[in-house]
Amino acid sequence: MTMCDLLLKNGYPVDYIVFSDTLQEFKEMYVYIEKLKEYFLGRYGKEIITLKPKSTFEDWCFGTLEKGKGDGKVRGLPLVSNPCYWRRESKVKPQDEFIKPFGEVHIYIGFTVGENRSVQNTDNTTFSYPLKDVFRMTEEDCKQYLINQEMENPLYRHFSRTGCAMCPYQSEASWFNVWKHYPSTWKYVKDIEAKLNGSMNDFWFMNYKTCADMEKLFRKIEKQGTLFDLSDEPLKDCFCKI
To answer: Are 218 and 179 spatial neighbours (Cβ–Cβ below 8 Å)?
Structure first.
């Protein structure tokens, strides 16, 4: 939201602010979005438009494949070695449908200084990165900006990035915080794993680790602290900042 606030505050053209609801967000995210809707409408006269997928995560997770070697088998969880099918269904497709009627569009992406990434332009869509190229802000700068503006997302007290609550591509450190601070989400993850036993892909974690494996590790970490080093890097960039 740092990018949106700075663009509007500095008079840049912003026609739409879009929130792509994966239907799997933390409860705090939904509360936060409602506060932002009130803020942007009251200060700038801009509405936040919420996009949603046509199906649910569980529709895809427990649905069956209709082609290829897995034809007829339960799809299972997104493979950590492949692009996430739920990002495609819950974010990419709704966004594509939203912008299709407009013809040519310009999309701002919140990549920051230090993130050497970009999205390839298409015939109808161009992307720009104002936090990196105009405002010269790092992720820490953005976090501090929101704190100073009293617009902080409470999820950043536990996570360095936000996305689906059960994102299989999140870091081990993020998974630890899910286990420690969000027991209902962790229970959901365990329940899905149990129901998918024997499907095409029934594991959330790298190296075929199960929830039980991770719980053992997390308990050791909680007990012994810095003796264990959890990666704070996401397994894969899922472009959740778009």
So the answer is: yes
Residue 26 structure tokens: 């933390």
pLDDT tens digits along 48-98: 999 999 999 999 999 988 887 767 889 999 887 778 899 999 999 999 999
Rounded Cα distance, 120 and 125, in Å: 9
Asked if residue 152 lies in contact with residue 146, where contact means CB atoms within 8 angstroms, the answer is yes
121 or 226, which is more confident: 121
Cβ(40)–Cβ(4) below 8 Å: yes
The answer for residues whose C-beta is within 8 angstroms of residue 221's C-beta and 6 or more apart is 176, 228, 230
Helix (H) or strand (E) holding 49: strand 48-51
Residues 6+ positions from 28 with CB-CB distance below 8 Å: 153, 154, 155
pTM, two decimals, is 0.87
**The Cα angle at residue 90 between residues 117 and 233, in degrees rounded to 5:** 40
Give the separation between CA 196 and CA 84, rounded to whole angstroms: 17
